[in-house]
Each structure stands twice: as structure tokens, then as C-alpha cells.
Amino acid sequence: MRKLPDGSVDLIVTSPPYNLGIQYNTYRDLDERDSFLAWCREWATEIHRLLDEAGSFFLNLGAAPANPLLPHQLVLELTRANPAFVLQNTFHWIKSITVTTRKGTTISAGHFKPINSKRFVNDCHEYVFHLTKSGQVPLERRAAGVEYADKSNIARWGHTQGEDKRCRGNTWFIPYETIQSRHKERPHPATFPVALVEQCLRLHGHERVKHFLDPFVGIGSSAVAAQRLKVPHFTGFDIDPDYLATARERLAIDAAESSQQLF
Ligand SMILES: C[S@@+](CC[C@H](N)C(=O)[O-])C[C@H]1O[C@@H](n2cnc3c(N)ncnc32)[C@H](O)[C@@H]1O
Fold it and tell me: For residue 22, which atom of ligand 1 is closest to its CA?
């Protein structure tokens, strides 16, 4: 990151290691809490330097039942640091949910890893903190929006300008892609779905993103999203060469599949 020029990045969507003891290939994910937070301050300072004044930094963080404060501690660090980020929005990435419809039908959707505990419930969500330099970055709320359930609202609310789209809000239900073989299709212990990154891109306004950075790119989920939404320039880093090799393969497969769909 030190080789990139100041203000040269419009968008960052990333998920760093959470210091929860996840078994990565290369990185050892278990440090003293203070030393982990100091390391986070170090990379976040570089992100601050690289981010354009009108840029967005979407930081995905999860917790563990026995370590519930970590996401909040880290975001507090980043908003108190010098230079500081402003927390502009907080999103909940919902991985699994059960809802009861107005007609009384109960629907469960998504996947989660069940935990065996008398104290803790299954953990079905993570955070996506939207950090900016000013707290004033305009967003494309309806580009990431949803259709009105009640169509009479389209005419009722002037701000719709006749379009059947409303702001989605800050709860995002995005399940993991279903896979047949974890070893072959997702050889990494902690990925986020491509659709989560696409949502961040659309919300920021993907057409104004010229350079997208993911400093912890893993097997390239953010790179695939950037490719699908035709971002002109993407930079990703990972310390593990095998993860990077998988990221390159995924990009090639995804490009081939989307060109097949075109013809
Ligand atoms: C939570 S994972 C990111 C996964 C990614 N979002 C995906 O969907 O594939 C964090 C990644 O950070 C990488 N990592 C750890 N320390 C790093 C460092 N100093 N520089 C670059 N990458 C690092 C790990 O190898 C791991 O792949």
C-alpha cells in the first residue's frame, strides 16, 4: 500500500483477519489484543492516506460469542485515531433469518454455522461499517434499493420520482453462495459473498469508482465483484500466494462464464 499515491483510491471493501484464531494458510490469527489493534491502526492509517476525500471504506467485521466486543473496539479505534475516520453508516450483514409473513407462513433462509452452547445463540450476522473521511459522502441509495411492496407508495412519496425503488436500509440479507465442495470451490476459511461487495459498490455508486482496493483480498471475492461491475482498476493484496492463485483462477472463470452469457 505504501507504494500507492495519496488519494488514489475511491473505494475499499475489505474484511481483515478478526484475531479470533481462524486457521489461515499463512497468517497466524491470534495476537495480544493491544498488539492486534495497533497493527489495525497501522493499515487503517495507510487506507486513510490512499482514500479520496469522496471515497468510501466498507469494513466487514464479525465477532465470536466469547469475544463480542471486537468489532466495536476496532471501529472505535479507527474513529479516534489520528487521522480519524467518521462512521457514516452501520450495516448488518444477515447470513440467515426466519420471518413470518403476513399470511402466517414461516420462512427460513440462508446458512449459518451452528454452535453447541448453553450460553450463546447461533451467530447469524456480521457488521459492515461504512467509514468515510468526512461523514458527508453522498450515496446512491436507490441503486442498492428494493422495489416497494405496496406500489401505491410510488405515487405517494414525491422523492421516488415515479421509480419503483426505495432505500433498502441497513439490514442486508445476503446468504453465502451454495457450493458442492468447500475444498475446491471455497478453499479459504473466512470469505464474504461477492454479492455483499456488489451491494457496497452499488451503494457508493459503482460508476464513479475508478480504483477499488482490497488490502486483504483472500481468494478474490471483491475482485470478482469489481470485474462484474466493470470497475476500471482493482488492486488486491494477500500474504498467502495460494489464496492469490485461487483469486486469479476465480477471476478467469468468472470472466469466461460472463462472456458465455453474452453470446
Ligand atoms: C477475512 S480474510 C479475507 C477474505 C476475502 N474477503 C475473501 O472473500 O476471500 C483475511 C485475509 O487477510 C490475509 N492477511 C493477513 N495478514 C495480511 C497482511 N499483512 N497482508 C495481506 N493480507 C493479509 C489472510 O491471508 C486472509 O486471506
Answer: 1
- Domains of the chain plus CATH, in order, are 9-97+124-262 (3.40.50.150)
Interval between CA 151 and ligand 1 midpoint (Å)? 43
If you measure from the C-alpha of residue 155 to the centroid of ligand 1, how many angstroms do you get, rounded to a whole number? 46
Q: Which three cell numbers stand for residue 168?
A: 433498502
Q: 174 C-alpha vs ligand 1 centroid, how far in Å? A: 21
Cis status of the peptide bond prior to 189, with omega within 30 of 0: no
Q: Listing from the earlier edge strand, what are the strands of the sheet with 233-236?
A: 171-173, 86-94, 125-132, 51-61, 9-14, 211-214, 233-236
The Cα–Cα gap between 210 and 223 comes to: 13
Q: What is the pTM (predicted TM-score) of this model?
A: 0.94
Looking at beta carbons, which pairs linking 248-252 to residues 24 or more positions away fall under 8 Å? 248/220, 250/219, 250/220, 250/223, 250/224, 251/220, 251/223, 251/224, 251/227
| Residues 95-132 pLDDT 10s | 999 999 989 999 999 988 888 999 999 999 999 999 99
pLDDT per residue as tens digits for the range 177-236: 876 666 666 788 889 999 999 999 999 999 999 999 999 999 999 999 999 999 999 999
Q: Best substitution site from 13, 19, 25, 216 to test ligand 1's pocket, by max atoms within 8 Å of Cβ?
A: 216
The residue whose CA has the least distance to atom 19 of ligand 1 is 239
